[in-house]
């Protein structure tokens, strides 16, 4: 039956892990995966998550179905975390929100909703580069994907002029996808004043802002600071949509906990949007998984656990930031040719090193160090034990 099915290419990120696994070297490092690792290189279960799970077991939680849009307490708390308790759409009861299968599922529901109901455009503009999965998921949902400039290779920073020009040049009413914080893969974010300019341009052009926030708290260690763009756009009256993921900031990768929300004009509009979200979700997966949503709800809804969690996110973010500083210092000490300031200034889990595909190949071959060929590294994979080895290998690869 499947004689005409062509062989597809492997996933570029998961392919890195395959090669890493096959390498027998004791020094090998996998910088490809976007999952946090502790100071010893191990996966990390947050203490607040462990406590919440114990509470759930003790309470004898059942395994009944959730409603189509998920756990109500989770949705309320997720919205408050992103928008702030005092946010006008929340207070006025005009935020339509549903639980989703993590951030990817949120994006998929959002794209399907836009494909069905957004009247102005079926074109979504994403930054160049963007998280690889944005493109196929938008296309599979029936949207056309176009790009706006984002990254400037020569400065290893933001091409703000190019970004503004491209967003301005997009036909009125276009969908503009924005990474709310900790842009993946570059680690380069607009500043607060640049966000303000972007809000103005998007408003003038009547574009639709589509925020993907997969790293709230993980970028700076401060959940409010990381939500700046989203909250500012809402204050400015944008009827945006927002995708949230709890994979990184709560370390709940495999639990698949996320949310997608739409700021609506009023309660009546919210009710109509809610009804269509249910109609999209029901034939897709019926209803979301319960366990992770309960964990998030238990943490965000309890003052003590919430505060514990805030300090745990900050610790994860700070460890990553300290690795940035150490890597920068080492590269400079080793007289590595080039400018390495971006390693320190980039934000979040990833760094776009500026290494060329040839240098990436050489690092794999000579030093058993694995990363995607675009030179993106997960800073979370670095620790006190491997950072000197890594810096030396990079320095040698750059020196040629
Ligand atoms: N958006 C971005 C920008 C991401 O980097 C990721 C995770 N790599 C996601 C969304 C979604 O991840 P998940 O489905 O695991 O929440």
UniProtKB/TrEMBL annotation:
<feature type="domain" description="Aminotransferase class I/classII large">
    <location>
        <begin position="27"/>
        <end position="393"/>
    </location>
</feature>
<dbReference type="GO" id="GO:0030170">
    <property type="term" value="F:pyridoxal phosphate binding"/>
</dbReference>
<dbReference type="InterPro" id="IPR015424">
    <property type="entry name" value="PyrdxlP-dep_Trfase"/>
</dbReference>
<dbReference type="InterPro" id="IPR015421">
    <property type="entry name" value="PyrdxlP-dep_Trfase_major"/>
</dbReference>
<keyword id="KW-0808">Transferase</keyword>
<keyword id="KW-0663">Pyridoxal phosphate</keyword>
<dbReference type="GO" id="GO:0005739">
    <property type="term" value="C:mitochondrion"/>
</dbReference>
<comment type="subunit">
    <text>Homodimer.</text>
</comment>
<dbReference type="InterPro" id="IPR015422">
    <property type="entry name" value="PyrdxlP-dep_Trfase_small"/>
</dbReference>
<comment type="similarity">
    <text>Belongs to the class-I pyridoxal-phosphate-dependent aminotransferase family.</text>
</comment>
<keyword id="KW-0032">Aminotransferase</keyword>
<dbReference type="Pfam" id="PF00155">
    <property type="entry name" value="Aminotran_1_2"/>
</dbReference>
<dbReference type="InterPro" id="IPR004839">
    <property type="entry name" value="Aminotransferase_I/II_large"/>
</dbReference>
<dbReference type="GO" id="GO:0006533">
    <property type="term" value="P:L-aspartate catabolic process"/>
</dbReference>
<dbReference type="InterPro" id="IPR000796">
    <property type="entry name" value="Asp_trans"/>
</dbReference>
<dbReference type="InterPro" id="IPR004838">
    <property type="entry name" value="NHTrfase_class1_PyrdxlP-BS"/>
</dbReference>
<protein>
    <recommendedName>
        <fullName>Aspartate aminotransferase</fullName>
        <ecNumber>2.6.1.1</ecNumber>
    </recommendedName>
</protein>
<dbReference type="GO" id="GO:0004069">
    <property type="term" value="F:L-aspartate:2-oxoglutarate aminotransferase activity"/>
</dbReference>
């Amino acid at each position: 039956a499947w004689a005409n099915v062509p062989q597809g290419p492997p996933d570029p990120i998961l392919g890195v892990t395959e090669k890493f696994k096959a390498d027998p070297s004791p020094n090998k490092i996998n910088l490809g995966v976007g999952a946090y690792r502790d100071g010893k290189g191990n996966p990390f279960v947050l203490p607040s998550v462990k406590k919440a799970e114990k509470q759930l077991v003790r309470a004898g939680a059942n395994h009944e179905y959730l409603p189509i849009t998920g756990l109500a307490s989770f949705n309320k708390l997720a919205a408050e975390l992103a928008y702030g308790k005092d946010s006008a759409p929340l207070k006025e009861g005009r935020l339509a929100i549903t639980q989703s299968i993590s951030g990817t599922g949120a994006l998929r529901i959002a794209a399907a909703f836009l494909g069905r109901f957004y009247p102005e455009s079926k074109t979504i503009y994403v930054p160049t580069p963007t998280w690889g999965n944005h493109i196929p998921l938008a296309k599979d949902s029936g949207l056309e994907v176009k790009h706006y400039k984002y990254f400037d290779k020569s400065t290893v920073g933001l091409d703000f002029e190019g970004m503004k020009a491209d967003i301005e040049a997009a036909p009125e009413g276009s969908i503009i996808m924005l990474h709310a914080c900790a842009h993946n893969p570059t680690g380069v974010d607009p500043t607060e004043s640049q966000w303000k300019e972007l809000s103005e341009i998007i408003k003038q052009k009547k574009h639709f802002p589509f925020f993907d926030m997969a790293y709230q708290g993980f970028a700076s260690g401060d959940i409010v600071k990381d939500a700046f763009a989203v909250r500012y756009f809402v204050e400015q009256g944008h009827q945006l949509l927002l995708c949230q993921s709890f994979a990184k900031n709560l370390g709940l990768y495999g639990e698949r906990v996320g949310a997608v929300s739409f700021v609506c004009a009023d309660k009546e509009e919210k009710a109509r949007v809610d009804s269509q979200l249910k109609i999209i979700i029901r034939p897709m997966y019926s209803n979301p998984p319960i366990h992770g949503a309960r964990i998030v709800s238990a943490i965000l809804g309890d003052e003590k656990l919430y505060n514990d969690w805030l300090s745990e996110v900050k610790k994860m973010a700070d460890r990553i930031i300290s690795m940035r500083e150490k890597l920068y210092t080492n590269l400079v000490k080793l007289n590595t040719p080039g400018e390495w300031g971006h390693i320190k200034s980039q934000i979040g889990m990833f760094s776009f090193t500026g290494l060329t595909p040839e240098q990436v190949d050489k690092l794999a071959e000579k030093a058993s160090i694995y990363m995607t060929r675009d030179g993106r590294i997960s800073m979370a994979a670095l620790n006190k034990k491997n950072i000197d080895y890594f810096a030396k290998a990079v320095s040698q690869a750059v020196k040629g």
